[in-house]
Amino acid sequence: DDGVSLMDGESYVFMPSIMKERALIDQGEIGKPQQIRERFGTWLQRPGALDTERESSDSHRGWRMNSAKAGGAGFPWMFDHCVHFFATAEYLMQDIKIKEVYALKSNISWMNHTKMNDKNKQENSEMHTYRPEESGDIPIITWTYEDPACQGVWMRAEALNGKYDPMYGFSATIIGDKGMIEVLGEGGKGLMWNDKNVHLILHRKDFDTKTYRFDEGGDDIWQSEVSYYSCAHRNQINEFIDSLLAGKLPRYRGEDGYHHVKTTMAAICSAKDGKPVN
Prior knowledge:
The protein is built from six helices and ten strands. It is of the alpha+beta class.
């Protein structure tokens, strides 16, 4: 209806670090963006930030691991999370739409027979069990864009699927013909340059590398170098209010969310069928 404004609450594209990466891309710092690599590592929760252990608590997340309740057709964590990754993948590719996805599935049942040490058990407890169901694990997703020069990949390597990556949380690298940007996202930690923790690195052909930090007081939930809770959520609410006051469309709209839910469902279908899905 005319006069009705609809905005989808997609928080990843409102993180200051991700928005800075998009601004640098729009300024031409890396030339034409052509490839994105997204990384999903271990998530470390701040002690006492949420009571995720007791099923009676408001913050218990057990329902999110059950695809009968959370969706995902056997991959509940993927339906919960992958919309964020695809939204970011298009945002950093200057809004070029994803055309086709291909998700690889792996069997990690061997982990049930592997003895975990106390540290791994502690990490599993802290990360509120983002474990797959019988369908298996999806460790890698690739995709192509409507622009045939562009492509992307998402990789999951963490304790819960039996892999090790020194980078924590979500991070993304985007590559152009003149440079590359690496950035931390939700729960992100471990991005280093010259032995210093940084939040964004800009590599440019024939220029010195530049680094950035976004010291916003830390994250409310994660042991992270950047703020997702609550900085990204505050930014998206401000975006909606500002768009209403200005009488303009918000930056991330209902049709964007619909498209990224469809993309996530295509990735789940791809994993189940073993073939690319448009």
